[in-house]
Design brief:
The protein is an alpha/beta fold. The chain folds into two domains: 189 residues, Isopropylmalate Dehydrogenase (3-Layer(aba) Sandwich); 141 residues, Isopropylmalate Dehydrogenase (3-Layer(aba) Sandwich), CATH 3.40.718. Helix 7 links the parallel strand 8 and strand 9. The radius of gyration is 20 Å and the shape is globular.
Amino acid sequence: MEPRIVTLPGDGIGPEIMPPALELLGAVGDFEFEEHEFGGASIDAHGTALTEPTLDACRRADAVLLAAVGGPRWDSTDPEAPRPEQGLLGLRQGLGLFANLRPVRPLPALYDSSPLRRERIEGTDLLVVRELTGGIYFGNKRRDADGALDECRYSVAEIERIARVAFGAASTRAQSTGGPPRVASVDKANVLETSRLWREVVSRVHAEEWPDAELEHVLVDNAAMQLVQAPSRFDVVVTENMFGDILSDEAAMITGSIGMLPSASLGSPGADGRSPGLFEPVHGSAPDIAGRGIANPLAMFLSAALMLRHGLGWENEAARIESAVDRALESGLRTYDLGGSATTAAASQAVLSLINK
């Protein structure tokens, strides 16, 4: 049976980068694609960023592929107004997606596109593991005439499960290097009670379940500095929701452009044994270039590769897409965000032409 993939083109450049990604997927396998409105597009059509039929379709799918969400068209200070980002949070909760994986591996062909000097980024190959459904983004919120409140809360169970994902990922990565698994846990334990709990729980999971791994605790402000000063020192970085959101976007610039980073959001299998993951580029909807045909589709392609690997277990097909992207860049492909002039269509064709070579 063909894998069923729900596609969510979303907003901004999303509808421009989704079709070439589906064409690329069609070159490596057979799929059943089911498209749904999402984010701002869904607000315009249905008054809400995520409808129940769309969520139900995602639950029944083998994987969900999202292009982009949001834009100034739907920005509002009215707390009652629907916002595109609510759809993303609702999808994460509805699918139980608690672990966000963001690989950061600058390609040698793009070393000179990075704002950091070549010698700083050479050898960087890190993975940010971000807790996705807890913390301040999902805490109680209140606003009145005198102020506002956003509550940050974490349970022991939430920290345990994301720590296990991080140590498991580090163990898998270590198999190719021959060294010990290495995890850097990022927190703000010198100030925040949630971070002190985070540090205690991560330390216990390490001691009880992965004693052979190397674990270091890094304060978030220090981690932010180290990511630009010496990013190659990190292997797997695990952290809470808001810190992970900020640090992974910072790490994205190591590659030369946020338009190069994919991500995977994963959960635990439900009662029916299903656990569809959500796969999306990090770059967002880029409304300033939407409709101009110059969006970089490569992060979308790499997100499709993560979907094949983590969502379907198709390692060979994932590697084929990643190899085609790498070789296209080595051959000189550069989109506008990378200092070149390749359009979305030209970049897509450059990768497609290499997929079977």
